[in-house]
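Case study.
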Amino acid sequence: MSTTTPTTQQNPTYSEAFQSGVREEMKLNPNIFILGTDLVERGGHFAQVKGIAQEFGVDRVKDSPISEAAMVAAGLGSAMYGCHPIIDLNFIDFSLGAMDEIINQAAKIRFMFNRPVPLVIRATSGVALGGAHHCNSLESLFAHTAGLSVAVPSRAYDVKGLIKTALRSPDPVIFLMHKKLSGVRGEIGDENTFIPFGSAHRVKSGKDAAIISYGYTIVSAQKAAQTLAEQGIDVEIIDLRTLYPLDTDTINATVQKFGRVVVADEAPMFGSITAEIAATASEVNFRHLKGPIVRVGAARAPLSANPQMSEAAIPSANDLVEAVKKVMSY
Amino acid sequence: MTTDSKWGKETLRQMLLIRNFEETADKLTLRGKVPGGMHNSSGQEAVAVGVMSALDPKDVIATTHRSHHHTIAKGMPVNIVMAELFTKATGCSGGRGASMHLADVENGHFGGNGIVGAGVGIAMGAALGIKQMGHKKVAVGFVGDGGVNTGRTWEAVNMAVIYKLPLIIIVDNNQYAVETFVERVTGGNDIAKRGAGFGLPSFTIDGQDVEEVHKHTSEARNRALAGEGPTFINALTYRYYGHNVGEKGQYRTQEEIADWRSHRDPIDRFSAKLISEGALTQADYEAMIKSVAKEIEEAVDFAEKSPLPDVSTILDGVDSGLLGARK
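After joint prediction, the assembly is written out as follows.
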């Protein structure tokens, strides 16, 4: 069990944690390269690869035309050939221009042709400013697709540990970094710290109920936990860290321990990963439940550019407080 | 130019092998032996054999839904190809792919594809891998006249140009995208000109002349190996059968098909040339026809007798399992 690390000025940001993990693996594996838009000078839109081109050269950090299908195809073909590319799609919304390359091709090559596709597709995800074309939460779609793994880190430590694991994996990985967490500082592991996929992190232990979530919603859950504590409710918070593989052992143990569980994220609730978790956990652990698992998610609507409208569409800390109170009422 | 006799005979034999394979597989498909059906490449042999005869066996290809000819020319044994069409465990993809998903990645065949236009991107990626790893090889991406109207094809061409990748793009242009004539749906109606617009050497060639295809591919390969980047080749060809086996198309005349078969058939043209040059006797040719027929008969026998895949393996190979246990 670990608790949230206190931040200091010396700790790296969430984006710097990505740089750190990628640098370490690039030093060890000459076949890792990064390809994406505006990486060399700008260092990526969230500084996620800042300085890496200067250190490793432009053959290993390649600026790309804005051609998402070709970017993913470049990663797919070179991964089949023996490289371990990181394709940086900037915003995950832009992956929709490369869905054939991701879902029809990269995800299925190993199954059909018995050939590993060691490919990382990195993108910024999550709801923040930018409107309907920069705020899609597509993680459920990728988790739904056989052959893909999906990482959704919520803190610097997990960003580094998970990207290092992804860069040693023979499978295609969708690596989603929440834009609102980019500048958040936190401790990171050393060069030997690898976080396995399918291993959830207990952010906070509790006695009364649990919130299972991932990404930025973990921050909202921590705020909710403070509010609930003031009202005498001690809530546990589980950060899934990856959506596929999914840590079903921890999910089941959590449901069995409390019987009062909230599953939350900021994706539209209809057909989302929270539905998968709630349905499966209910089937497996029905007799342990005090009442239905409650889901918290976004409205089934495109995101608005107006900040207040955008915020209104996704769960707030208060929505999580209300959801926990609901499961406490059983 | 006189053809080298040894090369000529092998090239002709390859084309005959493909023709016999396709005509045999077509009949077997009509008898229900090929789950999902197939796309017959009869008539297009010179493109496949001309390209592949100019490559090193270690070079990479990625191709289309119509890929039996590319696959056989690349060197996959016909019994393995036939077994895959039958979706048998002994097929190159273990029966998981059938006609459209033939592959042997280890030996540079990065797969047929069910998605029009996808092959060029995969080949471009392989070419990037070749360049990143400093290898002396090329990748070839096949696309049809249908695929040249997909955006992904041109995204890949552009990327190959800007990174100067060792890539050859071959348009296996049989002039019909399913039932749609290329001129009806191709703005500008000059595919090579489109390629040239991306700033790479771009040619339209006679895809029924195996030596012309070989020559252009060899030159493109030399440029690629010299670090000069990709080449775009639009090879004009024709398929004698429908888009898919069993098609009853009314979109072209029997006269048109007969004209291509009788005047421009790649096998007839090349065999006549070899015989007229004295590189091949009529008796040799007839023996060759018999020999490929026997090879295909054996391939069918192999496919028929091969075991089906074990359905309990449907989850095997979805992913490595190394990232976490699948549950």
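Observations recorded in class. The longest strand of chain B covers residues 167-173. Chain B touches chain A through 47 residues (CB under 8 Å). We will return to this complex in the next lecture.
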